[in-house]
Automatic annotation (TrEMBL):
Species whose genome carries this gene: Ruminococcus albus SY3
Binding site for ATP: G36, S37, P38, Q39, S40, G41, K42, T43
Descriptive protein name: Cell division protein FtsK
Domain FtsK: 20-197
Sequence segments annotated as region (Disordered): 422-447
Length: 626
């Protein structure tokens, strides 16, 4: 049980008592705000407090968070009690600290059950000290305005719940609303007028001396006797008035006795260059985040349980846990992305990992941009649809059929083309449908010069390889838009009426999918729901890799019911407010999104599980070849 956390920061000069007692602050009773001019000793005082916490506290009862806007505390990020050290290079890290602390505040509130932190005897949670160096930078930056109310709440409610705040500032402008909740005020090396503004009263001049200044008294003064015991000083003095102070000097954490004792207390491992005892560490992403960095950050943690269907795409920003797409649970995935945001890398990683298993077939539906051409080059046997093709060419392919070749997976390529005995089950070859031979009926003559559009080719492939789509395919074979059953059966090739697994990945990157032209509308409204019903049984996976806005309401609604998981490679609040109102993201609150998520850096994205209503921001694994 922690009843107090008293840090001795220097000496008071109390003329009325003619004594110079210790300048002490109890972090369980007072937050600290430290004002000072440059080179006045502000950073030294923060270092001193962190050093004292490492001397007095342990990993079981203390945790430190640092936001360093001044850049002078970088050496402390590896200290055993420091859970998180972030600078202001990435706004997401600032948001991340406040998310963590808000969660801790809620957890501590539940654990304390209405009892103050210092009075909680059983089940007392771990104490947290939150440092912000150069608080003025935090206040002056427009992008951090959304966190100022969160900070005020921590100052107001944190002390009684075991969260103490220590901040440094060079100016007191705009800080009136915070000062009342930062009980311990310290000011170093300022003019008399500035001292007066901070303490609301006159002070005597002490000159320009680093480490010297004024502070109000927040706890009863004590002094040590000859036997080393502390006794409270009796006398009349104003506990809220400013008194002159002289701050102690912080020891160098990398030298001398402090370093020796620190390593001994927290069991430093010289071989691995880390402390054996340390608090949970919240990490930051390296400058480049590839596969090697991803596994290094995991530190041996298991990320995949079912490699046939699960693909890890990165780590989430808050917990640094793997963000994994599970295609066994969700057969339809949508990717919303702005240009150049990394969707090519994302789709390539998804497809390449999936193609390592089960000898899957691959169908690529591209458009004039040719952005799936790289996947076609990687998997030459893939069915690639991107442009108009003469009907006569397709008829020739049909008249001279070849032995079907399954798409080679990455695993089979590595095996030199050899496959296991069990892989023939997934080879894509199908038994002949068991139907009586229909009577021969002459086919209508179709002009040899006619061509099939990419969408018509895709529907034709689905009809012949996946499922009978009925009259939606009749025009492709007979020239008629509608046929009766007697007419259709002999002339329209019926696809897979039999039920067997046919593992296939469909990557739909073409803008045609979202056009309201008749055949495109029919594909999304009628054919895709049919495929959805049989996707799990037949082992189909659909990746809509470049989702576009749909003007047709019925198409949009059908699409939204299909998609269960989605990526957004864009600033989420802007995306939802400008483009996403009619998407699966339409129910998300834009105001909350702006408060909870920062702007995307390069390689950032969001993963949304619709059914779980879970939105995670993550850093995407970036392949070196791109």
């Amino acid at each position: 049980m922690t009843e107090n956390i008293i840090v001795q920061l220097g000496k008071y000069d109390v003329p009325i008592l003619q004594k110079q007692p210790d300048f002490e602050v109890d972090l369980l009773k007072s937050n600290i705000i430290l004002f000072g001019s440059p080179q006045s000793g502000k950073t030294n005082l923060i270092r001193l407090i962190i050093n004292i916490l490492h001397k007095k506290m342990n990993v079981e009862n203390e945790q430190i968070f640092i936001l360093d806007f001044g850049g002078a505390l970088a050496d402390y990020q590896t200290m055993p009690l420091v859970s998180a050290y972030f600078d202001n290079s990435n706004e997401e890290y600032v948001k991340r600290v406040f998310k963590i602390l808000e969660t801790k505040l809620k957890e501590n509130t539940r654990a304390l059950q209405g009892v103050g932190f210092a009075a909680k005897k059983d089940g007392q949670p771990k104490h947290i000290t939150f440092f912000i160096d150069n608080f003025n930078s935090f206040l002056d930056e427009p992008r951090y305005q959304g966190y100022q109310e969160k900070f005020a709440r921590l100052c107001r409610d944190g002390l009684s719940k075991g969260i103490s705040i220590v901040v440094t500032a060079s100016e007191n402008k705009g800080m009136t609303s915070y000062i009342n909740n930062l009980g311990q005020k310290i000011a170093l090396n300022l003019s008399n007028d500035r001292y007066g503004e901070i303490f609301s009263g006159k002070v005597s001049s002490i000159g320009n001396i680093p480490g010297r200044g004024f502070a109000n008294i927040t706890m009863r003064l004590r002094e040590k006797d000859r036997k080393g015991k502390y006794h409270e000083i009796t006398g009349t003095y104003n506990i809220n008035a400013p008194y002159e102070i002289h701050c102690n000097f912080a020891e160098d954490i990398n030298k001398g006795d402090f370093r020796i004792n620190l390593r001994k207390k927290f069991q430093y491992d010289a071989d691995n260059k880390c402390f054996g005892k340390q608090v949970e560490k919240y990490k930051i992403f390296p400058q480049t985040f590839g596969v090697a960095e991803y596994h290094h950050q995991l530190e041996g943690e298991q990320d995949i349980t079912d490699p046939q269907y699960e693909v890890a795409v990165g780590l989430d920003y808050v917990d640094f846990k793997p963000v994994v797409v599970n295609f066994k649970d969700s057969r339809f995935l949508a990717v919303y992305a702005k240009r150049g945001a990394g969707q090519d890398q994302l789709v390539d990683r998804l497809v390449t990992n999936l193609m390592q298993h089960d000898m899957r077939k691959l169908v690529l539906f591209d458009d004039g941009r040719g952005q799936l051409k790289m996947l076609k080059d990687k998997f030459p046997a893939a069915k690639y649809i991107s442009q108009y093709v003469a009907r006569s060419e397709l008829e020739k392919e049909k008249e001279t059929p070849k032995e079907p070749e399954p798409v080679q997976s990455a695993a089979s390529v590595m095996m030199g083309g050899r496959t296991s005995a069990g892989s023939s089950f997934f080879s894509g070859q199908k038994a002949e449908p068991k139907f009586a031979k229909p009577p021969e009926i002459s086919k209508p003559v179709i002009p040899q010069g006619s061509k099939l559009s990419p969408m018509q080719q895709l529907i034709k492939y689905i009809h012949e390889e996946c499922v009978d789509v009925g009259n939606f395919a009749s025009l492709l074979y007979t020239g008629k838009e509608y046929l009766s059953m007697l007419e259709r059966n002999p002339n329209v090739p019926i696809g897979c009426l039999e039920t067997f697994r046919d593992p296939t990945i469909f990557v739909l990157h073409s803008k045609l999918v979202y056009s309201s032209v008749r055949e495109n509308k029919q594909f999304l409204e009628y054919i895709m729901p049919i495929l959805s019903d049989m996707a799990e049984e037949r082992d189909y996976i659909f990746i809509f890799s470049d989702v576009r806005k749909m003007s047709d309401i019925e198409m949009n609604d059908k699409f939204n019911t299909l998609v269960h998981t989605a990526f957004v490679l864009d600033n989420i609040a802007e995306f939802v407010s400008e483009k996403g109102q009619k998407t699966i993201f339409g129910d998300l609150d834009v105001k909350l999104l702006k408060a909870d998520y920062a702007l995307c850096e390069k390689g950032d994205g969001y993963f949304y599980d619709v059914e779980a209503d879970s939105l995670k921001k993550f850093k995407m694994i970036q392949e070196e070849d791109f």
